[in-house]
Amino acid sequence: MAKQKSEWFDWIKALLIAFALAFIIRMFFFAPIVVEGPSMLPTLEDGDQMIVNKFIYQITEPKRFDIVVFHASAQQDYIKRIIGLPGEHVEYENNSLYIDGAPVEDPFTRTDQNALYEQGTNDFLLEDLPGGYERIPEGQILVLGDNRMNSTDSRMLGVVPMDEIVGKTNLIYWPFDRIQLIGE
């Protein structure tokens, strides 16, 4: 009888440890997210399920063109691509990205006549966006969706504070036929 109680106790203890580890991993390291809407087409499709690396920006700085998840509101997270970093001036003119006045190749802006939708970027200056900044403030980033004509991003929301960033995402794990690493 004592052996049976000990076995049950061991099983309960193992399950509690497993649940605690799963909770810690999910809270602090990795979390799943589902892409909603067309704003990241063609890179990400509506319904793609991804893993968010929640700790990466604790050990490295964000990079231009990283795909990030951030709190757009208390109820909703958005997935967008980093375009501008702290201290930079960002401008789009004639579908060309300029950082501090110098052209930067943006492989996510395309205007293909045969495409089902246009991915061009309307002209804008950082100063024209909410906040009216001349340079992106420290601790903030500018984000855009890849489907620029159908994306709610920094052009409407303004720059995004780093403390609103949930993490970086680049792994699609579902649906099965779309499993891939993005941009690595």
TrEMBL record:
Instruction: Describe the location of the Peptidase S26 domain by residue ranges.
Output: 9-174
Please classify the protein's predominant subcellular localization into one broad category. membrane
- PROSITE patterns for this protein: SPASE_I_2, SPASE_I_3
EC number of this enzyme: 3.4.21.89
Tell me the protein family, please: Belongs to the peptidase S26 family.
> Pfam families under this entry?
Peptidase_S26
Residue intervals passing through the bilayer: 12-35
Provide the membrane topology annotation. Single-pass type II membrane protein
**Is the Transmembrane helix keyword given for this protein?**
yes
Sorted alphabetically, which PANTHER family does this protein's record hold?
A: CHLOROPLAST PROCESSING PEPTIDASE, SIGNAL PEPTIDASE I
Stated name of the protein: Signal peptidase I
Question: Which reaction is recorded as catalysed by this protein?
Answer: Cleavage of hydrophobic, N-terminal signal or leader sequences from secreted and periplasmic proteins
The reply on keyword Protease is yes
Q: Which UniProt keywords apply?
A: Hydrolase, Membrane, Protease, Transmembrane, Transmembrane helix
Enumerate the subcellular locations listed in this protein's record, separating them with semicolons.
Cell membrane; Membrane
GO MF assignments: signal peptidase activity
